[in-house]
Amino acid sequence: MPREQFQKGLQDLQDGVLEMGSMVDRQIERALQSLVGRDIPLAEAIVRDDDEVNRTRFHLDNVCLSLLTQQAPMASDLRLIISVLSMVSELERMGDHAEGIGRIVILMQDEPLVKPLVDIPKMATEARRMLKDALDAFVQRDVNSAYAVGQADTVVDDLYDTVYHDLLEIMVRDPSTVESCTHLLWVAHNLERIADRATNIAERVVFTVTGMMPQMDVSRY
Amino acid sequence: MTMTGQSIRDMLGRRMIELRPSVEVRAGSALPENDVVEDPVIRISDLNLWYGKKQALGGVSLSIPRKKVTALIGPSGCGKSTLLRCMNRMNDLIPNVRVQGSVEIEGANIYASTIDPVEVRRVVGMVFQKPNPFPKSIYENVAFGARINGYKGDMDELVEQALRQAALWDEVKDDLKKSGLALSGGQQQRLCIARAIAVNPDVVLMDEPCSALDPIATQRIEDLMRELAERYTIVIVTHNLQQAARVSDRTAFMLAADDLVGRLVEYGATDQLFTNPKDERTEAYITGRFG
Asked: Which of A167, B137, B149, B282 has a CA positioned 20 to 30 A from the CA of residue A66?
């Protein structure tokens, strides 16, 4: 097969995106664990490990640059590399949101929860599913699955609505809870943004396959 | 310059008894809908060409836009140079060549029996792969075409203007009597471009003009192509896909199938063709999966 080295480079790049995706997914999962278990050492580890996510992003950026300069890619190969540049940026920011949750957990220390954690874990589950589905769609080059990720964002938005109104109600009822409620609101906001970024990754999947740049503008936030 | 102001239609029309009506690009040609070239200089319709019994081009239809750079790409043997040479009847110089279909320039079929191929080659100049200056001075190389065309204007001015347009003037203005063969390869190629444009053509055909040049000389010719496109219509054959992507406005991809007949596969805006080709054969070629 012609250009074997180049094809191997593209495969390695795709594998790198998947590895980074699973690294970020693990960070989101641990962020929720640290919140639910009020586990400060775990939260500190998440903050520390974000450096590794960032390093991976810059490594993959460099791989893209090398492929662009050394292989002069065209057509679908060019679109793939351009998409990866964007995807790794989204993944890196998702990692920042997970780190943000870790920092909130550290800030909260042993502050009692103002409400049981029901919808926030659901948000995390949905956002992680969207990330996984977006990356699956990327590997399969499946445009329909990519669009489905965009649709799923409404579920996370609805959950965010619920969390927001619940917390608002608690704050109105008892103003002394404002700080604690705000902490949880920040957590929910970080999860909502993670879901938006999964949608952005899905958009890049559509671009990789079709060359079109869709705007899956379904997020209300 | 006294030669300016005459359109190719005027030049060719004098020699024409009858003109074939302009042929619309046929359904099924490579021109996709909504991608029709407005006001083309060259309109090629259902062009077939045989070298003896061997068919080299089959059913090629495409239109070349005015004052743009159009690149012809494709693997060796796909017929891109043959197609280029049809645009100024250079193939006539090869024995046993037979051409069917039409190549219209400004609406005039250059293969009509009434057309003088020498005149066609004046309005459609050509630059070849290997620089081929005449064994004469730089000045005479540029003035040559104008002299045989009976140019009566200021020859010094014509030579300077052509050399300036070819981005060579500053390097040779003090050495115009020096032999063209004493120049570097890149300078020789620019001299050939100056010679081609000195007779005031409408179209300049370039057959792999940089393949014998180093990267710096190549860069200069590529820059020059973009500048020349402000005045002339340029058609370039190149094996260098990056070059096609860099210099051209439109790109045509040709391919010879198992029957070895070269056909047009895809033709469109260069940025579109190189980022999102419509035909999987184009995709396979430009991504290096074959060819």
From this structure: B282
Q: Report the residue of A74, A78, A143 to disrupt the B interface, i.e. the one with the largest count of B CBs within 10 Å.
A: A74
Domain chopping of chain B, boundaries? 8-286
CB contact under 8 A, A2 and B277: no
CATH number at residue A135: 1.20.58.220
Residue A78: closest C-alpha in chain B: B275
Question: Is there a domain that residue A202 lies in?
Answer: yes
**Over chain B, what is the mean pLDDT?**
88
- As given in the structure block, the two tokens for residue B7 are 């359109």
The answer to whether position A52 is within a domain reads yes
How far is residue A13's CA from residue A82's CA, in Å, rounded to a whole number? 12
* C-alpha separations of A154 from A20, A116, A201, B71 in Å: 25, 23, 16, 47
- Give residue A192's domain range: 4-210
Shortest Cα–Cα distance, B273 to chain A (Å): 8
Q: Which fold has domain B8-286?
A: Rossmann fold (3.40.50)
Tokens of B85: 């040479």
Contacts of B290 in chain A (CB under 8 A): 2
Interface of B with A (CB under 8 A): 241-242, 245, 274-277, 282-283, 286-291
Q: Give B140-157 pLDDT, tens digit per residue.
A: 999 999 999 889 999 999
Return the residue of B nearest to A75 by Cα: B275
Structural domain contains residue A221: no
**Structure-block tokens of residue A33:** 């664990």
Structural tokens at position B79: 């017929």
Q: Which of A46-55, A173-182, A208-217, B16-25 has the lowest mean pLDDT?
A: B16-25
- Classify residue A198: in a domain, yes or no: yes
Displacement of CA B193 from its chain's centroid (Å): 12
What is the value of ipTM here, to two decimals?
A: 0.76
Taken in order B139, B173, B197, B70, is the CA torsion positive or negative? Answer: positive
- Number of separate domains in chain A: 1
